[in-house]
Structure formats: C-alpha cells, structure tokens
C-alpha cells in the first residue's frame, strides 16, 4: 500500500515535473534570445561609431601612400644641396616621419592591409636606396632623375597598396 501511494504520488508529480522542465527550457531560450538581441543592438550601435573611424583611417593611409609615392615625394621634397647621400636621407626621413604620424591608424585597419602599407613604404625606401647606390648617381639632381626614370619604367609600390586599400574599403561598405 505504501508502494502504491508512492507510485500514485509519482504519477501526480510527473506532469508537474515535465511542465517545470519545459518551462525552464523555454525561459532559458527566451533569456538567451534576449541576450543575443542586446548584443546585436550593442554591436549595431558600435558600428555606427566605429565605421566612420575605420573609413577615416583608410582615408589617412591612402593620403599617406599618396604623399610617399615617389613622383609626389620628389616634387615636394627638393634637395637642400648637391650631396646625394643627404638628399637620399632627407627623402627617407620624410617617409618615416609620414609613417610615424599615421602609425596609430593600424588599429582600425585589417592586419593584411597594414602589412601591405608597410611593404609599400619599405619598397619605396628600397627604391631610393638602390637608386642612391648606382654609379651614375653623382648628385642629388641625378638621383631625382634616376628615380623619376625608374618610376616611368615600373609601377610604384604605393599604387598596389592604394588598390588594396580600395578593395578593403569596398568590402567594409
């Protein structure tokens, strides 16, 4: 008889337990859904402020690449004297200063884009150093002439980086 009462009690409690488990499951789903919704809204709100900052960083890096492109750099930075090494160092120092000025922008760019920009900067510096070591370069004006000639013969490394930035921005927008 006691076993029968316990069994009967179990049958009475079983539907309540099933309802309780189902209610608990639905409440959990509801709370997870609400949490996901809050995260989505927060992420959406952050995008409103982050997207303009990211686009501004891409703009600044595009400007940086334009400023260090050899054609524009040679027009903007004129030799102070006739010494080739001094002019070479002046060009490289100008590139490095521009780069350091925009260094903080890397936090808004993709890692791959930042690497492309650094590669373009280093390739531009490499072109200047390589031209400075040529035997025919005896003066600062001759260095400018050789660099401009090289620029006509081959594509500037900054052009490839600019194309990459444009592609990256298209993917963001």
What are the key terms here?
mainly alpha, 83% helix, rod-shaped, 173 residues
Report what the structure shows:
The chain is mainly alpha-helical. The chain has a domain at 52-172: Up-down Bundle (Four Helix Bundle (Hemerythrin (Met), subunit A)). It contains 6 helices and no strands. It has helices spanning 2-68, 70-76, 84-101, 111-132, 140-153, 157-172. Helix 1 packs antiparallel against helix 6, helix 3 packs across helix 5 and helix 4 runs antiparallel to helix 6 (157-172). The protein starts with a helix and ends with a helix.
List the SSEs and their pairings.
Layout: H1 2-68, H2 70-76, H3 84-101, H4 111-132, H5 140-153, H6 157-172
Helix pairs in contact: 1-6, 3-4, 3-5, 4-6
Give the N-terminus to C-terminus distance in angstroms.
75 Å
The backbone outline, from C-alpha atoms, is rod-shaped
Q: Helical residue percent?
A: over 70%
Number of helices: 6
**What is the CA-based Rg, rounded?**
32 Å
CATH architecture of the domain at 52-172: Up-down Bundle
Name of the CATH class of the domain at 52-172: Mainly Alpha
**What's the total number of strands?**
0
Mean pLDDT: 88
Q: Please indicate the percent range of residues in DSSP E strands (runs of 2 or more).
A: under 5%
Segments where pLDDT lies below 50 for 5+ residues? none
Biggest pleated sheet: none
Structural class by sheet pairing and helices? mainly alpha
Task: Give helix and strand order, one letter per element, not per position.
Answer: HHHHHH
Do you know the CATH topology of the domain at 52-172?
Four Helix Bundle (Hemerythrin (Met), subunit A)
